[in-house]
Write a structure and sequence with these properties.
Elements (H helix, E strand, L loop, with lengths): L6 H7 L5 E3 L2 E2 L2 E2 L4 H7 L6 H8 L5 E5 L6 H5 L4 E5 L6 H14 L3
Parallel strand pairs: 1-4, 4-5
Antiparallel strand pairs: 2-3
């Protein structure tokens, strides 16, 4: 979506209110081709690579607790980091992640 004309520019204007949720745990995508696309683009395949890629359009990122070792590196991008379990295997897990984001990320 960020490649659609004007989207990246508009998001950058309100980046303090934008939250990214990492689709990765370690160097593996939870599902889908995110890791493959990042690798093909020469981007670090981890939460830091994702944060760096989105640092111009968001200032908040939710990462999996297994990626806590990347917190300092991501903080250097001037982003707020929130860690929790991001795997959503059922509706209860989906609701738990949504609730976490709404409670923790005050945007």
């Amino acid at each position: 979506m960020l490649q659609i004309k004007g989207i990246r520019k508009e998001l950058s204007k309100m980046k303090k209110k934008v939250v990214a949720v990492s689709p990765l745990i370690g160097d593996k995508a939870i599902s889908g081709p995110a890791a493959q696309y990042m690798e093909a683009a020469g981007i670090d395949v981890n939460a830091y690579g994702l944060a760096k890629m989105y640092s111009d359009v968001c200032s908040n990122i939710v990462i999996d607790t297994k990626d806590k070792s990347l917190v300092k590196k991501i903080q250097n991008l001037d982003m707020k980091i929130y860690d929790t379990k991001i795997t959503m295997k059922n509706q209860q897990a989906e609701e738990a992640l949504a609730s976490f984001i709404l409670k923790q990320v005050h945007v």
